Amino acid sequence: MSVVILWVTKASKSQQHILRSLQSATEMNVHVCNDEQHAIKTAEKIKPSVILQSMQGTHSLDLLRTYKIHILLTHIPVIMLGLNIPKPMRDYAFFRGCNDYIETTANKQELLTRIRLQSAAYLQKLQCIDVKNSLETTTAKLETCQTMLKHVSSLDALTGIANRQTFSQHYEREWGRALRETEPLSVLIANIDHFKAYNDHYGYKQGDACLKRVAQLIQEVLQRPTDFCARYCGEEFIILLPATTAKGGIYIAEKLRKAVMDLNIPHQHSETQPCLTLSLGLSTTSPMLKHKSRDLIRAADHARFEAKRQGRNRLICKSI
User: Fold this and answer.
1) CA gap 39, 67 in Å, rounded
2) What is the distance between the alpha carbons of residues 316 and 310, in angstroms, rounded to a whole number?
3) Among the CATH numbers 3.30.70.270, 1.10.3720.10, 3.30.530.20, 3.40.50.150, which is that of 164-319?
């Protein structure tokens, strides 16, 4: 393991043997900076694993403080060199962030060992920081993927609108809110008329395109952000209309029924119209404790069935 050393001092006679010892060690890569004014720029350039600096006067401690507040140098260990430095000054240096203090009279083996230990600790810290950053990045990506997966799993694969399970979850929340706030709640179920005959005649590819277009049209008809639509099953769509009375629900249902007819999608084998049509069932209530949430959907489904029985391409309303 190579130890990159920044020597920040003009070596005195007592320090010459230390510098020579470092330069003679094969794994030590020593960069000498005789001018302390250039120490920061030099450190930024060579990215040392250890900084060796003479403890001479208060300016050396000021430079030490600069290392420790520098965003790129803050973790680099700084070893101060000195001879018979008073303990209060050494203590202050450690308080300022000095990692070690070595007397210039130290023997070569002690010197090299302490430098290696500081360098190894620093490189290990860098690895830990890299692993932490990598983990944070991976975690962020994973959370993004989980969010996307959750979103995708909430949608119907064909039409791109909410699926039945998502609707059920959303419906239960809205039912509870309407019950607390004593507000009306409407459910509308729309069924494409004679869709099996449409698929048999035009093919499943065209049938899928038809379902997508109707799903898109429903979203265009619904103007309020609180309105919620989903593919219920096959050719059925279900729409939740919070804070909506029967009159408001009828308005939306008729608007949707006419909008589908205005698409003028040919349906030669329809027994109702030569174009695509909808049968719709609407149910409205102001939830009370005696009601069960599923009752409203059942009523809308019964109304839809009645609309089909009465000749299709129409709206039937029921209440609970």
Assistant:
1) 9
2) 9
3) 3.30.70.270
How many Cα atoms occupy the beta-carbon half-sphere of 100 within 13 Å?
22
Residue 190 and residue 279 in contact, taking contact as beta carbons nearer than 8 Å: yes
Is domain 3-131 in CATH 3.40.50.2300, yes or no?
A: yes
At residue 27, what are phi and psi to the nearest 5 degrees?
-90, 0
Residue 219: the pLDDT is 95
In this prediction, residue 9 carries a pLDDT of: 76
33 sits in the region (left: phi over 0; alpha: psi -120 to 50; else beta) called: beta
- Is 234 in a helix, a strand, or coil? coil
- Cα distances from 210 to residues 216, 217, 263, in angstroms, run 10, 11, 10
- For the stretch 147-163, pLDDT in tens is 888 777 889 999 999 99
Q: Provide the CB-side half-sphere exposure for 162 (13 A, CA).
A: 18
DSSP per-residue string spanning 76-142 = S-EEEEESS--HHHHHHHHHTT--EEEETT--HHHHHHHHHHHHHHHHHHHHHHHHHHHHHHHHHHH
Confidence class for position 11, pLDDT limits 50, 70, 90: low
Instruction: Say whether pLDDT at 249 is over 80.
Output: yes
Residue among 154, 171, 165 at smallest CA distance from 239: 171
CA atoms lying within 13 Å on the CB side of residue 114: 18
Q: pLDDT tens across 111-125, in order?
A: 889 989 999 999 999
- For a pLDDT cut of 90, what percent of the chain falls above it? 55
Closest CA to 50 of 20, 75, 25: 75
**Residue 305 confidence class, pLDDT cut points 50, 70, 90:** very high
